Amino acid sequence: MQSLQEKASEWSGVAASDAFAIDETNLFQALGGLQPFVDLSTNFYNRVYADEYEWFRSIFAGSRKEDAIQNQYEFFVQRMGGPPLYSQRKGHPALIGRHRPFPVTHQAADRWLYHMQQALDSVSSIDPESKIKMMNFFRHTYCIFSCSWK
Ligand code: HEM
């Protein structure tokens, strides 16, 4: 039987070695701390909450934008070599379970990635090489909880 990791690689087209290149350098240190992560998540959720499609905006309607930003950047910080801010505040990330209430369809996942790519493109506090590593991680990870669609 294929492992979840293998399936995610196949569906996302991102090899595990590329997805986990984020673990080869400490991105939190390389980027100089918290601010680039705050920039990225703020830029991302500004786009998400202003999305032209109501069906996509409605997925996030139950959360305050400020909370969604903080949840996301704290998770990214801890996953990319920084202090465990997310777990200190909320416990285990358990992303599969935490996304279960939301309709993460193929279409929604594509839209999420689209906004993340746009956000990465417009944040100047992250260097180009780190952006590629982060995007590979996002593409692979979103597949872990949404690619067995559904
Ligand atoms: C595939 C498309 C995705 C959709 C539609 C989606 C949707 C959502 C929604 C609606 C929330 C609730 C907002 C909040 O209150 O925090 C959320 C939370 C979150 N998402 Fe996603 N997400 C997606 C992909 C991802 C990916 C790829 C990651 C990580 C690499 C991720 C990490 C998180 C985290 C850490 C939270 C906070 C969970 C919590 O503390 O409740 N999401 N997501």
Describe the structure.
The chain contains ten helices and no strands. With 150 residues, the protein is an all-alpha fold. It has one domain (4-146): Globin-like (Orthogonal Bundle), CATH 1.10.490. Helix 4 packs across helix 6 (65-79), helix 4 (35-49) crosses helix 9 and helix 9 packs antiparallel against helix 10. The chain is globular, with a radius of gyration of 15 Å. The two termini are 19 Å apart. Protoporphyrin IX containing FE is lined by residues 59-60, 63, 67-68, 71-72, 75, 90, 93, 95, 98-99, 102, 104, 108-109, 112, 138, 141-142, 146. The site of protoporphyrin IX containing FE (HEM) has 22 residues, from helix 6, helix 8, helix 9 and helix 10. GO terms for molecular function: heme binding; metal ion binding; oxygen binding; oxygen carrier activity.
Shape: globular
Share of residues in helices: 55-70%
Instruction: From the 3D structure, determine the CATH topology.
Output: Globin-like
Distance between the termini: 19 Å
How many helices in DSSP terms?
Answer: 10
Structural Rg = 15 Å
Order of helices and strands: HHHHHHHHHH
By DSSP, the count of extended strands is 0
**Number of folding domains?**
1
**CATH classification, class level:** Mainly Alpha
CATH superfamily: Globins
User: pLDDT under 50 segments (min length 5)?
Assistant: none
Small molecules bound in the structure, each named once:
protoporphyrin IX containing FE
Average pLDDT over all residues: 93
Tell me the structural class: mainly alpha
The share of residues in extended strands comes to under 5%
Family: Belongs to the truncated hemoglobin family. Group II subfamily.
Keywords: Heme, Iron, Metal-binding, Oxygen transport, Transport
Organism: Iris pallida
Protein name: Two-on-two hemoglobin-3 isoform X2
